[in-house]
Amino acid sequence: AQKVTQAQTEISVVEKEDVTLDCVYETRDTTYYLFWYKQPPSGELVFLIRRNSFDEQNEISGRYSWNFQKSTSSFNFTITASQVVDSAVYFCALSAKGNYQLIWGAGTKLIIKP
Amino acid sequence: NAGVTQTPKFQVLKTGQSMTLQCAQDMNHEYMSWYRQDPGMGLRLIHYSVGAGITDQGEVPNGYNVSRSTTEDFPLRLLSAAPSQTSVYFCASRSRPRGNQPQHFGDGTRLSIL
Fold first, then answer.
1. Peptide bond into B75 cis (omega under 30)
2. pLDDT at residue B22 is higher than 90
3. B35, burial (CB in 10 Å: exposed 0-12, middle 13-18, buried 19+)
4. Contact, A25 vs A106, CB < 8 A?
5. Please, are residues B57 and B68 in contact by the beta-carbon 8 Å criterion?
6. How far is B93 from chain A (nearest CA, A)?
7. Does residue B84 sit in helix, strand or coil?
8. A100 φ, ψ (degrees, to nearest 5)
9. Is B42 an 8 Å CB contact of chain A?
10. Do A5 and A21 contact (CB within 8 A), yes or no?
11. Is the pLDDT of residue A97 over 80?
12. Among B64, B82, B85, B105, which residue carries the largest CB count within 10 Å?
């Protein structure tokens, strides 16, 4: 069975702090894909990043970075120097190769206070 | 650049009423899906389609019906609305049924059943 756990229900930090959102996944498949999506207060779902299971390189995009560790089945997301506009619910999701379905975590609500 | 279009954005129904949520995409994507989003539960898959004329059930299909007569359209029907179906509904599409492509989401339909 596949599962995605985002243990942090809500995180609140002050602007300019760094914050890490945790994502732990379970799958028996050897080839799989991990995703992060952002849902701002306006409600739409915005794709942020996709990572393949065979590519463990970390990725950085501006203030965003992702740390993929197969040894701990984790795909954590860090925002450096957070801004109020980063306030949103962030979802981690998993899809196995050959599978139609995307398995979602429950989401982490991130609140950035000015 | 329409992408995935959902209508209506908001709807209030009475228990027992039926209605259809519309979803259309203009990207010629093979895969389309419907999710519901409830507080603290992430997104749950209702039904999906891997091409015109082909549909299948997801995690929570009861009380919903779908059809896919064209590549572009994937309507979701509530047969007899129940208060438990109060939720936010998202339609999504992806270029291929399987694989690592991210899903593109509509803006959602907020549905309340009284």
1. no
2. yes
3. buried
4. no
5. no
6. 12
7. helix
8. -80, -30
9. yes
10. no
11. no
12. B105
Question: Is A44's CB within 8 Å of B107's CB?
Answer: yes
Q: Given the structure tokens 């925002």, which residue do they identify? A: A79
Strand B109-113 to strand B10-13: parallel, antiparallel, or no bridges (unpaired)?
A: parallel
Is a pLDDT exceeding 80 seen at residue B89?
yes
Q: What is the pLDDT of residues A64-83, one digit of tens each?
A: 999 999 999 999 999 999 99
Minimum-distance CB partner of B100 among A33, A45, A91: A33
Among B41, B35, B14, residue whose Cα is nearest residue B23: B35
**Three-class secondary structure of residue B36 per DSSP:** strand
CB spacing of A45 vs B102 below 8 angstroms: no
Measured between CB atoms, does B45 come within 8 Å of chain A? yes
The two structure tokens encoding residue A45: 């779902």
For chains A and B, CB pairs below 8 A equal: 52
